């Protein structure tokens, strides 16, 4: 198939290749050309801008809202139905790859297998299985693996890796989920973090840390943690350290900027108040990360296909990043090439180039000049198959 009559956005250089045709075959991009052959099978995109499919790096397909209704003994069958619907919603929103960072019943592994067998249409999944949490910690009540001590964390991490995890999720700080909770309380020792990193390193994986404040982040980056989530209170010194160590940050600005969505989903008022009170420090922390040149990636925490303020959560996160000082190109890179680098798939995902996966989206307008174009998405292709087309062709 040839996708014709489109403007290709190069998310590496920021260049727009106007009036191009893209040849896809067997799920892979073959060629970007000036025109398709006369006898080609074509899909006319009508002058839309073509971008790589979006990669979101902080997803929970199984999470229950409000959190207080989570049942740790929920049958896996129920979890699977909820997760499959959310995955379908994410794909419709242009998410072609998602990194899951804790799923009840290890449902990310189930989604990955069902997708591989062709039983569901869903984004490709990079999964963590269950997060590792200390007893009574931030993950309490969420079907985490609850352990204490370095040896226990090491073996718990091995358990998730041997079950199929691509990365390991830990909580180095508390968070905003429950009334009275704050993000400044450290929840793991140096030895526990180091043991988790050791297990991940031995399996060619890496560690993802739920992180709130700077002291815990500095501790974790020195011990080898590669990916930091939320960063509600990041100081300039720690931002510089993250940049120097080439660590990644998933700011999840949606967490503190989706209050209407939270109320629509019946969150406890204490959770809403926590989020509201964290808006200012969260935004300032993101600004510091941007100024320091930290590698930031898109991740929503909110299901990426859910509607927040009139757009999908994954696009809402883009708008929030731009509002926080990230230029439009880096916003796009955060959901494409930079995200691909984080998940170690930069050789096959996140770009429109020969040999890369034919995961593509089309929008009305040039998002480099008008990020609002991302809210006018009308076409999604996953591995060479058109899975959404809103414009009659």
From TrEMBL:
GO terms of molecular function: hydrolase activity, acting on carbon-nitrogen (but not peptide) bonds
InterPro entries hit by this protein: Amidohydro-rel (IPR006680), Metal-dep_hydrolase_composite (IPR011059), Metal_Hydrolase (IPR032466), Metallo-dep_Hydrolase (IPR051781), OTAase-like (IPR057744)
Coiled-coil segments: none
Domain Amidohydrolase-related: 50-387
Domain of life: Bacteria
Pfam family, one: Amidohydro_1
Entry-linked PANTHER family: ALPHA-D-RIBOSE 1-METHYLPHOSPHONATE 5-TRIPHOSPHATE DIPHOSPHATASE
Record-given protein name: Peptidase M38
Highest classification ranks of the organism: Bacteria, Bacillati, Actinomycetota, Actinomycetes, Kitasatosporales
